[in-house]
Amino acid sequence: MGAALSDEAKIAVGREMAEAWRALDWRKVADMFAPDGVLHSMMVDPIVGREAVYKRVSGLGDGLESITLNIHHMGVIDGLLYMERTDEFVIRGRAGSAPVVGVLEFEGPLIKTWREYYDRAHLLKAMGLVEDFDQKTR
């Protein structure tokens, strides 16, 4: 494990992550996690491990034409990075958006845990889905 990141470096990682999503660069998204990192949308089971994160996010990319993580507020409190944002996306020709709060814990320069808080029903409706994509990627 490397040295602790400064608050400014953590914010830079948050912006870099948002840019990787905008670029639909799923490998980069996954590689920003520690090897045993966790991606946890709080209303479903956590995804554990860099390769499992890659499988999940690249699977979400199926049909995704674009996504922008519009960050409204971002800051570090007690060593954790908080991002309040609205995710805007186009999936299979359908535009949608969802308000989200993400909380990131770090292990050196890598993400140890990324917790996401959003209304799952709102997201699924905005995506035009009747079945939860979580069930499709297991």
Could you outline the blueprint of secondary structure elements for this entry?
Layout: H1 7-22, H2 26-31, E1 33-41, E2 47-48, H3 50-60, E3 64-77, E4 80-91, E5 94-107, E6 110-117, H4 120-127, H5 133-136
Walk me through what this model shows:
- By secondary structure, the chain is an alpha+beta fold.
- Helix content is 33%, strand content 43%.
- It has a six-stranded mixed sheet.
- The longest helix has 16 residues, at 7-22.
Quick rundown:
The protein has 138 residues and is α+β, with helices and mostly antiparallel strands.
What's the Cα radius of gyration? 14 Å
**Residues in helices, as a percent range:** 25-40%
Number of helices: 5
Give the strand line-up of the largest sheet: 2-1-6-5-4-3
Topology pattern, helix = H, strand = E: HHEEHEEEEHH
Distance between the termini: 30 Å
Low-confidence stretches: none
Largest sheet: 6 strands, mixed
Q: Give the number of DSSP strands.
A: 6
Mean pLDDT: 91
What is the general shape?
Answer: globular
- Structural class of the secondary structure composition? alpha+beta
Name the beta content range: 35-45%
